[in-house]
Amino acid sequence: MSIKEHNEGQQVSMRFVTLVSMVAALGGLLFGFDTAVVSGAIGFMKDHFSLNEVEVGWAVSSLIIGCIAGAASSGVLGDRFGRKKVLITAAILFIIGSIGSAIPTTFSAYIIARIIGGIGIGITSTLCPLYNAEIAPAKYRGRLVALNQFATVTGIFLTYFINLGIAGYGNDAWDIAMGWRYMFGFGVLPGLLFLVLLFFVPESPRWLIKQGKAAESLPILLKIHGEELAKQEVMDIKKSFAQESGSIRQLFGPTLRIALIVGVGLAILQQVTGINAVMYYAPEIFKETGAGTNAALIQTILVGFINFVFTILAIWLIDKVGRKVLLMVGSASMAVSLAVIGAAFYTGHTSGVLVLIFILVYVASFAISLGPVVWVIMSEIFPNRIRGKATAIASMALWAADYIVSQTFPPMLASAGPAVTFWIFGVMSVITFFFTWRIVPETKGKSLEEIESLLASSKG
Ligand code: BGC
After folding, report:
1. Hey, which of 150, 152, 312 would you mutate to test ligand 1's pocket, going by the most ligand atoms within 8 Å of its Cβ?
2. How remote is the CA of residue 149 from the centroid of ligand 1, in Å?
3. Is 413 within a domain?
4. Looking at the domain assignment, is residue 150 inside a domain?
5. Tens digits of per-residue pLDDT, 295-338?
6. How many domains does the chain have?
7. For residue 45, is it within any domain?
8. How far apart are CA 134 and CA 206, in angstroms?
9. For the CA atoms of the chain, what is the radius of gyration?
């Protein structure tokens, strides 16, 4: 092959990979949309349906029940029917969920719609990073998975603006009657875009080879890697499948047990340190400090902006300083800011900007650490063949922990009070720090096989 042809091949591959990653990133965008939309709507829905504290928790966390189910089934469904078909189904479920949560006349109908949409999000949150990892050339894999988190925070940030725009469109009475419906309904647009674009991306070549359809995978690998590397890649993938059994039992064997502890442990810690108490309820927290509806929504946008900026910083740092340093610095700084926020509520010093500043420090610390790093580690800590099922287990644990936090946050605020609630998140951040320090291996710059042998040598 001449240099010119080779270069052209490289260009084709980069254009192709970029396009495909952008489609997968849209899955992250939907994830972000659904994370943020409820924060703008919840205050109005509370008045519309006259909700008590437990029902407010349920209005927020019903989506997550769907997410747990979606994440749980994503591994098995994705292995059986292929990544692409299952992602298309997820997009349809997301669209149905968006329409359904915009038009309900009863609170129960809203809950059912959120659960349906949640199944879609549970699937995309697990399969999009997996699909990216499987389609990407090895050296772009880490970046592409972190890109997914970038899309998530972009979705959160944009949605805060949409919430503000819609809430500002009418008066309070209109917001309570109609505003929240438009907020949820807006999700149809990114959902449709995702659905249409999915028809233009190929099936995962790794999945095709696993199904014995190597011939179908070759044209896709050709587009990604160019002629010579593609044939080599088919052989490597076949070889890696031949070496691993891929059973769930393998996951509980001594070598992989530690991977499971790290993956599931980090997934749970990412949630019990409280990020979604802030993401889902930020305007309500700011109202507790005395801010009006509009000021609370503007402060929430600031939260989204900081989350966005510090995620970019994390993507830049993750392959330079490593996963472990980011996790330790981030969790330490989260612990300190949570201690201060708790103290501010405890002593009644909540007016002024103190609480706002430390919530921003907390979000920034999460965004450079647990936010992207946990998803990256979850995608790289398990070997090829078991990755689908194992990532689904970790993802399910993450959503289950998210459910518990978002369901208990409003009643805890009402009974134990904000000080104790934020201190509990602070204690969890301290645990995250020690867990990372003692148990999490540094995976920066290592191939998947090196990570595997690293874990094997530390199993005792
Ligand atoms: C978490 C989400 C969270 C988001 C905030 C993600 O990594 O999994 O639960 O809402 O970060 O940016």
Report:
1. 152
2. 8
3. yes
4. yes
5. 887 888 899 999 999 999 998 888 888 899 999 999 999 999 99
6. 1
7. yes
8. 6
9. 22
